[in-house]
Amino acid sequence: MNYIPRERFELLGNGKIQKNDILFCLRGSLGKFASVGDLSEGAIASSLVIIRPGPSLLNDFVLAYLQSDLCAQMIREFANGAAQPNLAAASLKKFIIPVPPLHEQRRIVGLLGEALDTIVIAKTNAEVNVQNARALFDSYLQSAFPEHGNGWPIKKLGELSDQITDGTHISPPYVESGIPMLDSKHVKDDFKIDDSEPEKFISPDTDAQLAKRCKPRAGDILISSRGSIGKIAIVEEGQDFNIMGNMILIRLPVNISRKFAAFYLKSRVSHIESIARGVAQKGLYLNQVRDYELPLPSEAQQATIGKRLDAIYIETQHLESNYQQKLTMLDELKKSLLNQAFSGEL
Predict the structure, then answer these.
(1) Which of 24, 137, 269, 343 makes the best surface tag, with the fewest CB within 10 Å?
(2) Which residues of 7-39 are buried (b: 16+ CB within 10 A; e: fewer)?
(3) Is the pLDDT score of 150 beyond 80?
């Protein structure tokens, strides 16, 4: 927490909390809220507002309301249209909330409390299982590539690759439709490039001009070099796009397994992030990638390791997907219960 002197606190006219007050975020994380519980003294920053329910409202009923679609609808109605939406405290006063008798509020809170507590426990377990699935793959990945490379020969990527380059650093002329122009956010964590919903397009002529520097082909490895540094993807057959300068392309000869190389780079993401340079915004540079060392077993060993890791990766992705679906279902269940509660159907 941040603190202020007692003298300063005594001078404050507003914004002093009392036990069981509810704090609501007006900007930044708009709509987040929490009860202060037993905390009986303190003050709030200007990004927060205090909700102090009167005698006709139970605190727990208001806390449930703040999680509901009805409250979300009020936020959308009153939030301004700025790049970072925010609310005024005066707008919050205009939010509509159903106010059943106190005995009905207690009944609703009792039903919701037990159900929502169960959902929280189930979500926590599912989230742990998602993390376990990821940790399982990471464990296999690290064991496949021990620190000293099993005595395999080590070569620099620059010595092995047919080409290492990045995309254009100048915004090309965009058109309404044509060849997708992708950047690092299109590199996903599943070794894939997501070209399903491109935001920008270039003409075939512009694409041909940019191809003099860089044009991804099937089998090329792409690494995000800005933002989330070190995300890795392999270009798939049939994909046709060009890239901005925040992606680096590695084109390996046919005798090197793409899967082997991509999994190895994935196993060293923390190292790749650590060698990035820059102050305001760190970046990975071409010379660093060219100097990056790749252990190189025989072609047969590369194929075996790549195939085995691919099978394990697919299985752990399947596990993670199942748990993510469970999380989605639990969110929908919570949403349904809250909608029933504030429409008189619970």
Answers:
(1) 343
(2) eeeeeeeeeebeeebbbbbbbeeebebebbeee
(3) no
